[in-house]
Amino acid sequence: MQQQKVPTVIIIGAGLGGLTLYHALIKNKDKKEFNVKIFDREFSPQARWQGYHIAINNFGARSLINCIPSSIALNLSKAIPNPVLNVEYHGLSLTDHTGNLLLRPPDKQVKDVFEAANLSVGSSIIITYRDKLRHVLLENVPVQWGKKCISYEETDDGVWILFEDGSKEFCDILVGADGINSPVRKQKLPKLQIFDYGITIIVTDVAAPKNLLDRLITKFNGKGVTQSVGLNGETSVTIFRLIPIEQENYENKNESYYRTTIFFEYPSKLDDVEHDKIKVDDNDPASVVDHVKYMIRKLRPECELTNVILELWDLAVPKTTSDPSKTYNPIRRRKMQDIDPLSVNTWTSNRITLLGDAAHTTSPVLGLGANNAIEDAEVLSRALLNYSSENYISCIKEYENEMRKRNSTEVLKSRFVEIRNTTPVGYIGCLFRNNLLRIINTIMNFFNYNLLARNG
Fold first, then answer.
1. What InterPro entries would the database entry show (predicted)?
2. What is the pTM of this model?
């Protein structure tokens, strides 16, 4: 009897979604064996900064645990440290531009990622180091670095992937997990459009001293993920863990410092209005930080919360190479964008499919992007358990139908919240918006139900 050929799956992109899929396919090899290869355009794992703080929710945690082997799961605490009980709060706090609390959804506080994964009622998140999670997921994964996919050619027997260096690889299934600018998506779904919010976002990591975070926590309800919304369409976000980082060359050796992610967003049209007043060099982090502080002073009132935000941005340009705010991807202005996978009415299911941001880039406002990519990996790996050379299209179609429905809902929900938060409202509109948010907050906490999250 002729031995059946082991099918090959090639994953383009070694981000969280692509790596999770790799582990899931290898983990399930006793049920269905694949020859799995993974390629990434970067020349090494350290070639580019791999992200800031993210929030892993109970759905992302569940899929992650289901996909990875126990050896990897044992190392998750390096990237997803157990919450510091009675000290940290893992959830969202939304305030107005002066720090008055508007909304805090009732997220369940859990002791570790495994409790989050097993949550059956309600919602929870754990603030996570994205770069460290990627490092953990890279363990025992033979990524082929420096391989930029530029196109593919589908044949009756499989798919040829063409790389920028002139090489090519053959596979049975191609998975594009290569981000918002995915060449795989552009070829598979050329009409799937990127939605531009007209919002500029700047984000970085800083080493924040304890005294500064204490002011944020005690005076302005700063908890885990703290977002403040203004009158002019600008928002400020701070995400941190109260786990001290190593102190090297910091001004006060006797004070604890904490890795903190800071965002600032504002309507992009303001850049055109202010073009003659301030010149910004996006290749110079100091220039971008000066621009952010200029915008904060212009758009925010003089108050203690504004002072705290400005002091955080003062930390954004590293004084030494050991500062954790050092990134391989310089601080610069970026466009806020997303992709709704249902913006194209029909997908033709074939040997080529998409995963994560390549299919459904999402606004970061609800922290769903990484979770949805990890869930995609679980759903696709489960669908491929039924793979055969005769029914591969039905496997891919099963995955794409679920992925598109789930993620389109999440993309549009995030878009609604982002647009609500970044729409200039003026003083009267601010009163209406803030009172509405307070009413929603009262209802959510009375019924112990987070309207911003999938529950259960």
1. FAD-bd (IPR002938), FAD/NAD-bd_sf (IPR036188)
2. 0.94
